[in-house]
């Protein structure tokens, strides 16, 4: 059994065997280890809360087997054009009024065309001018595009590895693993923070789940946020009907992610709507400390805000406060007084994550 010291150094050289041994630990032992690591770097009673707006939905030319936004699958998702800056700004204002400090914009593109960059840059600049942190997920980026987005004021970029290198070819055929690594490199080189994770429950083996987490942990810099998505099966996509992942196996993936990337935000992302409160609580025990908040996660449902608020109250959790260091704000949402109460009036949401996401399916590369 590999040693996981009381104060583990941040490592980037995990072997597959080491990661698999962690996965194979008895669950109570694995949870204890993950909880110990979590407490070294975070207050375990705090959960970071994020929000997301789909600024361009559907019609994507890629073939990600899990995604209803791929135009080749018949999922009933209508493609939309890129939202106007003014419409995005309106959502951003709502988000800010609800307490958001970071605003994430997602577009279903293989990669932005160069002609799209000025429009997105305008959005980013306008959102930034509201005093919000900015985050985007737009597909693959060239070095020049990453630099342009950084110059426009983009703070974070989301780009997931999705799965392990050896299983990747079963899921996506229209771009390869190295394309993803290249985009992440361009984002880092441009000086932006990375949000990067993957999806479990796509029919991969435990060893392949270990491979995903190994690949994430061995990136040159651990992602600031590591979204771990549980597949949301959507009719019409190739992965509809795949065997459901055992709930405890999902918990194991969260715990191993926490151990491998001790200082990252490990985020419960797509698939949370179908998780019981008890499963979510187990995930928090295993070291998850970030969620997406609001009624929709790009194109699939996300637990109601009221349910989230009630769960936080029952578990004694609270949203991670904004921490300012050297003028930089860390944390996605400041819900403050709203979340100190246990529920919002029916129909009122936190985070401005509403109409723009109503009809859109899960681009789980986001989150
Ligand atoms: S996951 Fe993203 S890149 Fe893949 S098909 Fe969906 S929108 Fe396109």
Describe the structure.
- It is a single chain.
- This protein has helices at 16-24, 27-41, 85-97, 116-129, 143-152, 168-171, 177-189, 206-217, 247-260, 277-285, 305-315, 336-340; strands spanning 46-50, 52-56, 102-107, 133-137, 156-158, 193-195, 198-200, 225-230, 265-268, 290-292, 296-297, 300-301, 318-319, 323-325, 328-330.
- The strands form four sheets. Strands 7-8-9-10-1-13 form a six-stranded parallel beta sheet. A five-stranded parallel beta sheet has the order 2-3-4-5-6.
- It is built from twelve helices and 15 strands.
- It is 35% helix and 15% strand.
- The longest helix is centred in the N-terminal third of the chain and has 15 residues, at 27-41.
- Helix 8 links the parallel strand 7 (198-200) and strand 8.
- It has a single domain, classed as Aldolase class I (TIM Barrel, Alpha-Beta Barrel), CATH 3.20.20.
- Mean pLDDT is 84; it is low at 1-7 and 323-367.
- It has 367 residues and is α/β, with parallel strands linked by helices.
- Iron/sulfur cluster (SF4) is lined by residues 60, 62, 64, 67, 69-70, 108, 139, 363, 365.
- Iron/sulfur cluster is lined by residues 60, 62, 64, 67, 69-70, 108, 139, 363, 365.
């Amino acid at each position: 059994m590999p040693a996981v010291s009381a104060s583990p150094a941040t490592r980037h050289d995990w072997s597959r065997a080491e990661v698999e041994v962690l996965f194979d630990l008895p669950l109570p032992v694995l949870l204890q280890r993950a909880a110990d690591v979590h407490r070294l770097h975070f207050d375990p009673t705090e959960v970071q809360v994020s929000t997301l707006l789909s600024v361009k939905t559907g019609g994507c030319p890629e073939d990600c087997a899990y995604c209803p936004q791929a135009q080749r699958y018949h999922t009933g998702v209508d493609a939309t054009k890129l939202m106007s800056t003014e419409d995005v700004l309106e959502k951003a204002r709502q988000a800010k009024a609800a307490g958001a400090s970071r605003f994430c914009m997602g577009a279903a593109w293989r990669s932005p065309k160069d002609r799209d960059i000025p429009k997105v840059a305008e959005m980013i600049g306008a959102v930034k001018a509201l005093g919000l942190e900015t985050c985007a997920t737009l597909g693959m980026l060239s070095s020049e595009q990453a630099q342009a987005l950084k110059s426009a004021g983009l703070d974070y970029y989301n780009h997931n590895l999705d799965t392990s290198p050896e299983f990747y070819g079963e899921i996506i055929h229209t771009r390869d693993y190295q394309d993803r690594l290249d985009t992440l490199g361009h984002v880092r080189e441009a000086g932006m923070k990375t949000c990067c994770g993957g999806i479990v429950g796509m029919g991969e083996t435990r060893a392949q789940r270990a491979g995903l987490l190994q690949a994430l942990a061995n990136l040159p810099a651990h992602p600031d946020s590591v979204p771990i998505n549980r597949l949301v099966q959507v009719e019409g996509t190739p992965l509809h009907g795949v065997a459901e992942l055992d709930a405890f196996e999902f918990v194991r993936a969260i715990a191993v992610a926490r151990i491998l990337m001790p200082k990252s935000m490990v985020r419960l992302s797509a698939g949370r709507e179908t998780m019981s409160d008890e499963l979510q609580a187990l995930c928090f025990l295993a070291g998850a400390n970030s969620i997406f908040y609001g009624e929709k996660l790009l194109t699939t449902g996300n637990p109601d805000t009221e349910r989230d608020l009630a769960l936080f109250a029952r578990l004694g959790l609270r949203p991670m406060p904004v921490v300012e260091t050297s003028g930089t704000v860390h944390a996605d949402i400041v819900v403050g007084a709203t979340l100190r109460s246990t529920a919002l009036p029916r129909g009122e949401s936190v985070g401005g994550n509403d109409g723009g996401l109503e009809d859109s399916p899960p681009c789980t590369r986001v989150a």
